[in-house]
Amino acid sequence: MSPDVRKTILSGMRPTGPLHLGHIAGALRNWIKLQDVYRCYYSIASWHALSSEYMNSKVIKSNEFEVAVDWLSAGLDPEKCVIFRQSEVKEHAELHLILSMVVPLPWLERVPTFKEMQQEIRDKDLNTYGFLGYPVLQASDIIMYKADAVPVGEDQAAHIELTREIVRRFNRTFGEIFPEPQTILTEIPRLAGTDGRKMSKSLGNAIYIKDPPEVIREKILPMKTDTRRMRRTDPGEPNDCPVFTLHRAFVPQARRDEIAHGCRTAGIGCRECKAVVIDALIEALAPYRERRARFEREPKLVWDILEDGNTKAREAARKTMDEVRAALGF
Asked: Structurally, what CATH architecture does the domain formed by 211-291 represent?
């Protein structure tokens, strides 16, 4: 058998509940394309979830199942990529510990998302060592598989640069083991939630990809639109409308252009605009709903897929840690 010469990709998501439309637009569509070109490892990042959910840890396993079902239903193929549970590959914890010995504390304190998430998630105590060290665990996830690249949006690019700094420091200290991962910038539309703010489970404004058609309709119809449109005859600006962020992600370009023109000329009303995106979402998610129903009927199949992925991930991780331990002289 010829060796797999494809470059390696690593990415993951925290299992904090079902996935929403932002996950499809921002990550899953891209992951599905990448699995045909790269050797891809996709991690359900259980320990990352624990950094904010440690007071409610018993829900993490059921959330892992939710994430796995969403991934598989969206189109990730376990024959093309490795889908695994981070917590089932103990080498991640070992490498995290080793990296934590060489990462300077100021590197972590300057990470912008540390303070941002503390401010955004006010109902949880995130002033912990584990939360501060989140980027070190993230770095261990990436370099464990000697990932050549990581697909992220611009808001996450700083995390990958920190990983590159950690790699350089480790390699200078112990020898050249890890490649410096490159950033694959992805165009991630900023999707508005039902309240106009960025769509987020923690803000309670998410439209979940498993929501049935009637729930999608109920969530979108009351959404606020461009404040210029106080009356049906008032022209608006789609770029200032929260609902139009959904159009950008899920409505074809030609139809989207028609809606934008209709908004700017008051040729259509906001309810008509919302009806278009509702229909587009229901149609786009129909194949997903069919696949999800199958996986929900066969939970053992989902866990078997994950365990197969765990096995493949462990095999790669063990090889890496053999090199790391030898470099340390252990």
From this structure: Orthogonal Bundle (1.10)
